[in-house]
Amino acid sequence: NETEDYEQALYLLVQLQLRDIVGELAIDDLLARRREISTTLQTGVTAQAAQMGIALIMVGIKDIMFPGELKTIFAQIVSARKEGLASLERARGETAALRSLANAAKLLEDNPALLQLRLIQSLSTGDGNTVVLVPSFDALKGIAPGAVPPNNPPASP
To answer: Staple partner for 29: which of 9, 25, 59, 139, CB 3.0–4.6 Å?
Structure first.
């Protein structure tokens, strides 16, 4: 039957052309550029199909199916990318937290009175169930020099 021969010939023509196109692409490109691949395939096959007396109206890629082994590898790649992005995001968060701590330390160093204000703020927001031990200002001198005002006697009137 001639129809079967034409169908078989067209099928082989499309398969060979498609393999040539797909062989040059990475998996990500293959999935992302399906329409472009269909257009390239139609352009490549139309002239040869016309020689067989077949007019192609449209060529399209419906599904892309990978062998099981490739599916597993692709899933591993996707998983590794997600883990990499998550690690990068964690590292960015840690860097931001460290930068914030460094800025706070610099502020306390440049403005020793901030330590006293922070201590007072902590005491005022404490719960009734919280026990707060407040070190003397002399003890604070060892922790943060300059955080404690000097012991100047008040000026006499």
So the answer is: 25
